[in-house]
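Quick one, tokens below:
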């Protein structure tokens, strides 16, 4: 199936997709990563999980992805038939170096036993969406860091998932490339209407991208504040220099500072 656009309802009117309710996560040795972590994800949301390093943001994302199980609490899809309809973009692109760009994007279909010729149109379409249609035959070693991340995003999009989980995907990139990919990601979301949960420790990135920012405290990780970024989309680079953006960044910074003092 080709990537299709989903309609996005206004905030407050969106149906819930996924719920994390009072989730605890402990590891061997008694380390408590999350305690009573709760989060509602609605159709069309762009949620940033913002918090200091080690606060459990990535752990929460892995739980949502089904890559780990909670020690207690509940994670449930609103529609059980849609459970698992998601893709994950990690901090590193994790591309196969021996495979071309198109072959890397084909991977999710290949794992389902589908030949490349069966899904070639879908692969090329999603490469057009991320601006890499001319690089379908290139290898990862021939790409810049930003281009590799675009391939990773294309691979996440190609199966048209209901939910995309992104774990600090731009953290290792230079500031100029990061800003460009922030803008590209918003344009891509507008085109296809996907739902995104995005892990970051950057106040500026969370405010620019999100309509909901969820601030987590560390040790153990939990939500201490959630607020809405009501600036309309699309958000251009001019938004970064606006008074509204500066005010929202100050509010997020204050919440993050509070989170750093909330260690238990």
């Amino acid at each position: 199936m080709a990537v299709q656009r989903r309609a996005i309802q206004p905030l407050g009117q969106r149906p819930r997709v996924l719920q994390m309710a009072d989730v605890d996560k402990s590891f061997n040795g008694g380390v408590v990563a999350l305690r009573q972590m709760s989060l509602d994800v609605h159709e069309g949301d762009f949620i940033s999980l913002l918090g200091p390093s080690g606060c459990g943001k990535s752990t929460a994302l892995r739980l949502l992805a089904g890559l780990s199980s909670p020690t207690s609490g509940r994670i449930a899809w609103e529609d059980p038939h849609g459970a698992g309809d998601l893709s994950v973009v990690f901090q590193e692109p994790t591309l196969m170096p021996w495979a071309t760009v198109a072959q890397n994007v084909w991977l999710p279909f290949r794992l389902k036993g589908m030949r490349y010729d069966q899904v070639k149109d879908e692969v090329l379409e999603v490469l057009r969406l991320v601006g890499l249609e001319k690089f379908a035959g290139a290898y990862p070693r021939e790409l810049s860091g930003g281009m590799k991340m675009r391939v990773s995003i294309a691979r996440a999009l190609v199966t048209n998932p209901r939910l995309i989980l992104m774990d600090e995907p731009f953290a290792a990139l230079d500031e100029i490339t990061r800003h460009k990919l922030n803008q590209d990601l918003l344009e891509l979301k507008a085109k296809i209407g996907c739902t995104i949960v995005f892990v970051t420790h950057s106040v500026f990135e969370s405010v620019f991208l999100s309509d909901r920012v969820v601030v987590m405290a560390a040790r153990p990780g939990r939500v201490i504040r959630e607020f809405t970024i009501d600036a309309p989309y699309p958000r251009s680079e001019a938004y970064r220099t606006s008074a509204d953006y500066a005010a929202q960044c100050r509010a997020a910074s204050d919440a993050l500072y509070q989170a750093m003092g909330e260690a238990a």
